[in-house]
Design goal:
It contains seven helices and no strands. The protein is an all-alpha fold. The radius of gyration is 22 Å and the shape is elongated.
């Protein structure tokens, strides 16, 4: 069975963090699954041809990892603290449709905008919220990956 599974840095880091900081909670999840009868389900599958299940199992692994990827993205996008406070970028940032924009590009742009805004506010205290939004839009446009196929004729 070949795998085209690709994991983000954030997901791999989360997995390590969970192992380091939440082993007891992970073990509790496993124990709950055992108490709910998962081992009986596995035992019943020994009679089934594993080759028939291999594609289904691959899909299960992919769904599991995709769920965690989505949870990470939603967590990062849903956190006011990570969305630009105290720069008032969160209301603007939440208006972006994640289906139309790559979330990594948006998050990278947000980080760059926060860094640039922080620098500007240190050097020029008269910078307003409108400037904050302009900087965010500028960073998003700069970080978008455009291809020749995207150009309208």
């Amino acid at each position: 069975m070949s795998s085209g599974l690709s994991l983000s840095f954030e997901l791999i880091y989360l997995m390590g963090w969970l192992l380091k900081n939440n082993k007891a909670k992970l073990k509790q999840l496993v124990l709950e699954a055992i108490q709910a009868g998962i081992m009986e389900e596995v035992a019943a599958m020994h009679d089934v041809d594993y080759l028939l299940l291999s594609d289904q199992m691959q899909g299960t692994v992919e769904q599991f990892m995709e769920y965690f990827e989505q949870a990470i993205n939603e967590g990062m996008l849903g956190s006011e603290a990570s969305l630009g406070a105290p720069y008032n970028l969160a209301p603007v940032f939440k208006k972006f449709d994640p289906r139309l924009f790559d979330q990594r590009t948006l998050l990278l742009s947000l980080q760059e905008a926060k860094k640039k805004i922080s620098y500007k506010k240190k050097t020029d205290p008269s910078v307003s919220d409108i400037d904050d939004n302009s900087i965010l839009f500028e960073r998003i446009l700069k970080n978008l990956n455009h291809s020749k196929k995207d150009l309208m004729h």
